[in-house]
User: Fold this.
Amino acid sequence: MIKAINLNRGSFVKYKNRPYVVFDREFYSPGKGSAIVRLKLKDVKSGVVNKVVFKTTEMVEEISVEQQEFQYLYQNSGVFCFMNPGTFEQIEVPEELAIDDKHFLKEGETYKIFFYESQPIKVKLPLKMEMEVAEAENAAKGDTVTGGTKEVKLETGLVIKVPLFIKKGEKILVNTENKEYVGRSN
Assistant:
């Protein structure tokens, strides 16, 4: 058991007898009364997000999860296929568990997968990922009417806004949490 105030984004908890991951957390302290923690809990099996409010002193059941590294292979009819690079064992992760992250899954890359009761429940992405620009319009000199950004399509199909100087074929860093341009890759 853990106090609600100590829960952070990415913590795994059991709520109403179902496993959840803390998707978002907000601390609120009114002028009068007890402080509270507003949580967005994402059901790790169905992907449904619930908004829950706890008093900071309330106890919540934390669940233990295993974490292993797997190499992403391919997507096939509603599942993502991964391979353990040590044992060559392959697992299938249902598309619902990684649907928000699918544009960051690149063949051959290694990702951490969390397991609860021997079932995969979450694919953990690095905070930043290097991506190649697949499609980008050329910017005209002095074209800053749009605020100095343009939309580009990355190698995985994700469309994001980048500065005008980014060209097709360049490698850039993208924040995996908010899907925003971070900078050029070295």
Summary: The domain at 2-62 is CATH 2.30.30.30 (SH3 type barrels.). The two ends are 44 Å apart (CA to CA). The CA atoms of residues 49 and 168 lie 36 Å apart. The chain has a mean pLDDT of 86.
